[in-house]
Design a protein that fits this description.
Blueprint: E1 3-9, E2 16-22, H1 24-27, E3 37-39, E4 49-57, E5 72-77, E6 92-97, E7 105-114, H2 120-124
Parallel strand pairs: 1-7
Antiparallel strand pairs: 1-2, 3-4, 4-7, 5-6
Keywords: Ribonucleoprotein, Ribosomal protein
Pfam families: Ribosomal_S6e
InterPro entries: Ribosomal_eS6, Ribosomal_eS6_arc, Ribosomal_eS6_CS
Length: 132
């Protein structure tokens, strides 16, 4: 069964929160693609809606929204997620993971799209990770 580490960002405060999800909660993310909305109850945010923004697999390969499916692909990149060119016109073939969440994904990045009635810190019971 799948298990993920979900990193939730709150755009209003700039704080981030990390939660490990498995079992039924992890199944809510399976088959979803980057840019889609997920119910926040999967990470303990009842009444919230999360938007999937990115992620990576266990080897650290990033997910790209412009690559269909859950599989690995070798794509020629000129920049963006997975490759930062050092000079103009530089391209590189990079292995990235598709935009669909599968069991191979280890971390999912999400941001709060719609806020609920309760405060995020109260629901998580802690402050954000931004005080490092």
């Amino acid at each position: 069964m799948a298990s993920f580490q979900v990193v939730v960002a709150d755009p209003e405060t700039g704080a981030t929160y990390q939660r490990d999800v498995d079992g039924q909660d992890a199944n809510r993310f399976m088959g979803r693609s980057l840019g889609e909305d997920v119910d926040g109850a999967a990470v303990g945010l009842d009444g919230y809606t999360l938007e999937l923004t990115g992620g990576s697999d266990d080897a650290g390969r990033p997910m790209r929204a412009d690559v269909d499916g859950p599989n690995l692909r070798e794509v020629l990149l000129t920049g963006g997620v997975g490759y930062e060119p050092s000079r103009d016109g530089e391209r590189k073939r990079v292995t990235v993971r598709g935009a669909e969440v599968s069991e191979a994904v280890a971390q999912i990045n999400a941001k709060i799209a719609e806020h609920g009635s309760e405060d995020v810190e109260d629901l998580f019971g802690e402050g954000g990770d931004d005080e490092e």
